[in-house]
Amino acid sequence: MREGLDDVVAVSTRLSHVDGEAGELTIAGYPVDDLAPHASVEEVAYLLLYGNLPEESERVRFSVDLAERRGIPTAVLDLLRAAAHDNAPPMDALRMAAAALALGRNGEPPDDALTAIASFPTIVGTYWRLRNGDEPVPVRYDLGHAAHYLHQLSGALPSAERTRALETYLITVCDHGLNASTFAARVIISTRSDVISAITGAVGALKGPLHGGAPGPALDMVLEIGASERAESVIRAKLDRGERLMGFGHRVYRVRDPRADVLAQAAERLYANDVDRSIYDLARSVEATALRLLREHKPDRRLDTNVEFYTALLLHGLGLPTELFTPTFAVGRVLGWSAHCLEQLREGRLIRPQSAYVGPTGLQYRNWGQPPITVATGALLEHPG
Ligand code: ACO
User: Fold this and answer.
1) Is residue 347 flagged as an active site residue?
2) Which of the listed CATH numbers 1.20.120.1630, 1.10.287.110, 1.10.3720.10, 1.10.580.10 matches domain 3-211+322-347?
3) Among 111, 143, 169, 189, which is most exposed with the fewest C-beta within 10 angstroms?
4) What per-residue confidence (pLDDT) applies to 385?
5) Quick check: helix, strand or coil at residue 301?
6) Domain ranges in the chain?
7) Domain 3-211+322-347 shares a fold with domain 215-315
8) Are 288 and 232 in contact (CB under 8 A)?
9) How far is the CA of 164 from the centre of ligand 1 (A)?
10) For atom 1 of ligand 1, which residue has the closest CA?
11) pLDDT in tens, 258-268
12) Worst-scoring range by mean pLDDT, 95-99, 318-322, 378-382?
């Protein structure tokens, strides 16, 4: 039995390959460090959905199709207003809005997949503005996917540099083998459910701090440390208390997560040109101390930097607040979820593993003959005995 399913192969995929020993990530045939800094989100979405990069005419047609799906239905907007009124966390708002994308649609898988990819930036941007008491900005059809997301958030046109940094991030995290949220999506769609249900489940899985919820706490740790000379004492105290350092360790990688390098380089460029680089320098020094202390703390287990550490730094440099880190991850990962859903529908079987039963056996139920539990209006539930 493999508790947690380490090393268990559950599906075949052409979408991405994670080599945990070599520290390599291949996305539909391309090394992530080749694709992420140079391609557009639209090209990579096309690659994942159709298996090859688009020709120029295909790229233009696909980009227009995607852009035309950016608007969100009034019912989704109303839902986001209600969520903002309730001050719901952005990931909860995204999950609710993702589910509501099914309204008025007929559940055609490719149509749902494209609509989810196109709508996520609008949902997150709209929600963020509503929660801050601002009105949403109208959808723009003349911007690329990454620039449109930044525009939805701030209402301002982003610089080419910032757009490139975000685009690199979104591509870096677009797919990653059978990670927990993608697995959740594939399990759901493997029952021949619909793509929107699968993506909604995936958003729920991504939210957890052991998966996509880590970059906020990773940045919090850097900010808490505040100065390089405090790194050792703060990190040592965390490890002594049995805390996990967010942004370090990975189920599959036994070496440095290759996505961390792609994002570290993107962050380096962003901070060199655009943003105060003191936090970048601090983060590099915190990383070095964390790696040294993790080796001391767990000598038998290789714990290295994962994608979330530099996600935190890059998104912070883009001016995104920590609450938007995981939703922004979802804006990237929805490409992979969508493509996995279509692949599972085309080629997969029902995913239904087994469990090892470790509970008691042979017990006998002896309570028959007891009066039924009754609930009187206005009275508390009374349970006999
Ligand atoms: N800091 C301190 N100790 C750690 C860390 C860490 N970041 N990661 C693992 N360990 C320790 C565990 O405490 C455990 O110790 P124990 O055997 O004494 O109990 C041992 O290493 C093995 O840990 P597991 O949880 O079994 O390893 P697993 O492969 O399941 O963990 C995970 C992978 C969940 C990512 C883990 O490394 C972790 O919690 N990291 C911090 C959270 C994080 O950064 N998540 C983002 C991952 S990337 C992504 O999902 C996009």
Assistant:
1) no
2) 1.10.580.10
3) 111
4) 47
5) coil
6) 3-211+322-347, 215-315
7) no
8) no
9) 31
10) 244
11) 999 999 999 99
12) 378-382
18 strand-pairing partners? 25
CA atoms within 13 Å, Cβ hemisphere of 20 = 15
Residue nearest to atom 46 of ligand 1 (CA): 211
- The number of the ligand 1 atom at minimal distance from the alpha carbon of 306 is 48
**Mean pLDDT value across residues 77-102:** 98
Q: Does 215-315 carry CATH code 3.30.300.20?
A: no
For residues 2 and 231, give the distance between their C-alpha atoms in angstroms, rounded to a whole number: 36
pTM (predicted TM-score): 0.91
Tokens 């139920």 appear where? Answer: 365
DSSP calls for 307-342: HHHHHHHHHHHTT--GGGHHHHHHHHHHHHHHHHHH
Three-state DSSP class for residue 353: coil
Report the mean per-residue pLDDT for the chain.
93
Catalytic residue among 148, 308, 340, 343: 308
Question: For residue 125, what are the contacts with CB-CB under 8 A and spacing of at least 6?
Answer: 136, 137, 149, 151, 152, 153
Beta-carbon contacts of 17 under 8 Å, excluding residues fewer than 6 positions away, are 24, 25, 26, 177
Alpha helices (runs of H) in 69-194, residue ranges in sequence order: 74-85, 90-100, 109-131, 145-154, 160-172, 180-190
Residue 133: both structure tokens together:
């008491």
